[in-house]
Amino acid sequence: MIRLIRSELIKLRTTNMWWIFMLCSLVFIGLALLVNIAQAHQELHVQSWATEPPGPGMNDEQRAQFLQDQQAERDRVAQARTAAGLAQHAASIYTSGQFFGLMMVMLLAILLITNEFYHQTATATFLATPKRTKVIVAKLITGAAMALAFWLVATVIDVIAGSVFFASEDVSNSLGNWTAQQAMLLNLLVYALWAIFGIGIGVLLRSQLGATITAAVLYTVGTYASLAALALIHEFLIKKDWVMQAAVYVPPLASEHVVGGLSGQLGGVDLPARWVGVVVLVAYAIVLGGIGTLITRKRDIA
Q: Among 92, 122, 227, 260, fewest CB within 10 Å belongs to which?
């Protein structure tokens, strides 16, 4: 098994795709950091209008409403600056770039298996290792190791940038807070699971181009289409919270829920515990990984 894993790592390292995907991931991390830091900055500061005196032309009702809105704004910022509020912002910043980072990991994992068919090395691989299950397990371990590398790079960049930001705001960076630590650790699990998804998809769709395009479209377009469909159903057909809560059963959205980033996209709907998202992702990984292994064991390799 160790030799198989080394072989898979060599195959991965000697292709140009891994560093192209890593560069793309770095770009998305930078963009996500800018957005999350800007949002956190806004949340940590009282808006200018909330420090202005009521206008002279306001009547008593308008003045009372204006003062009430000002107090609500101050309360919101005070809440954001509590330990719990800062930890939530830290969790978001320290997992920046997750959405597209996971897609890069999935696509690279797909290439781990489809490259065998594209370059016609599958026959030699399975002749050298007749027990095909070992080959798939080696690819799964290699994919998980690759996901670990992507997660580590993303997390280091996020933590450095986030710590600098929190220092500039003169507030705690929350690195010692379990909420932030849990988000980062669960993010590692999510990265590894998406590598398994990629291996499973690569086995199901042996065409390199077909598998990567299909997976990328389903991941991006499918995610937002699912959100839109759930919103329309909730608005016009079934006005129950469980409709929007069903978003956690969509893998990319489950990934965001695991690190606490989904609630804001659903209008503050109460969502199930994070472990539900973990269970959903693990279930998908078991199904895709199991199907992929069974198909590889039985399929003829030309």
A: 227
Q: Are 238 and 216 in contact (CB under 8 A)?
A: no
The packing angle between helices 251-258 and 208-232, to 10°, is: 70
pLDDT in tens, the chain (302 residues): 778 888 777 877 777 788 899 999 999 999 999 999 999 999 999 988 888 888 888 888 989 999 999 999 999 999 999 999 999 999 999 999 999 999 999 999 998 888 877 667 766 776 676 677 788 888 889 999 999 999 999 999 999 999 999 999 999 999 999 999 999 999 999 999 999 899 888 888 878 888 899 999 999 998 989 989 998 998 888 888 888 888 899 999 999 888 877 766 676 678 888 888 889 999 988 888 787 777 777 765 55
Read off the amino acid at residue 179: T
pTM reported for the whole predicted model: 0.88
- Which pairs from 217-226 meet CB under 8 Å and 24+ separation? 219/102, 219/103, 219/106, 219/252, 220/103, 222/250, 222/252, 223/250, 223/252, 223/253, 226/250, 226/253
**How far out from the chain centre does Cα 4 lie?**
29
Distance of alpha carbon 256 from alpha carbon 260, whole angstroms: 6
C-alpha Rg value of the chain to the nearest Å: 23
Whether 92 and 36 have beta carbons less than 8 Å apart is answered as yes
Give the sign of the dihedral formed by CA 213, CA 216, CA 219, CA 222. negative
Q: How far is CA 157 from CA 91, 134, 230, 231, in A?
A: 14, 35, 34, 34
268 — alpha (psi -120 to 50), left (phi > 0) or beta? left
C-alpha distance from residue 220 to each of 100, 215, 216, 231 (Å): 9, 9, 6, 17
Token pair in block for residue 160: 């450095």
